[in-house]
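ZP: hey, is the zinc ion complex queued? I don't see it on the tracker
AM: it wasn't, my bad. submitting now with these inputs:
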Amino acid sequence: MAVTKRMRFEILRRDNHACRYCGATAPDVKLTVDHVLPVALGGSDEPANLVAACQPCNAGKSATAPDSPIVAAVSDDALRWANALLEAALIQEAAIDARNHFARRFRDAWDGWLYDGEPAPLPADWRQSMGRFRSLGLPFGVMREAVDAAAAKPGVRWDKRFNYFCGICWRKIEEIQHSARDLIATEDSGL
Ligand SMILES: [Zn+2]
C-alpha cells in the first residue's frame, strides 16, 4: 500500500518541513517522505515509520542501520505523534457519544407525550437540530422543560409541536448567551 498524499502532507507538517536526518528545510532542499524501516524490510506505512527526509539523506540512507540512535529518536517522536492522533480521535468519538446521548434523551422525553396514542411527528433532520442546540450550550434540563412546555401548550397543532419546541429552545439559547455576555461584562468592569 502506498503512502497517500494526505499522509505525506501530515508527515511533512508534523516534522516542520525539515529533514529529520540532517535538519535541512524546504525550500532549500526538496523534501520527501521516507520509510524509517524500509518497506522491503517489513516497514509499514504507519506515521510511526514515516519521516520527512531530504533527497540526499533519503538516497544515502541505505547506509544507516534502522536501529541507529537517530532513527530511534525519530521513531519515538513519530510514536508520540501517532498516540496524539489516536487521542484526538477518541476525543472526537466521545463528542459523538455525548451528542447521541443528548438526542436519545430528547427522543425519550418527546415520545413520552402522546396524542391519540402517537407522539407528535419529528422532521427528518431532528437530530441535526439537537446537535445544534447542544453545541450552542443548551443544557439537558432546559431542553427537557422545552419538550414539556411544547407538548402541554394548548392550541398548537400536532404537526407544529416540534417547530414550537425549537422556538422555545432558540429563545433559551439567546437567554443563555445574554447571561454569558452579562457575566463577561461584569468581569471586565472589575466587579
Ligand atoms: Zn537531510
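AM: back. The first strand starts at residue 31 and ends at 35.
ZP: great, adding it to the tracker
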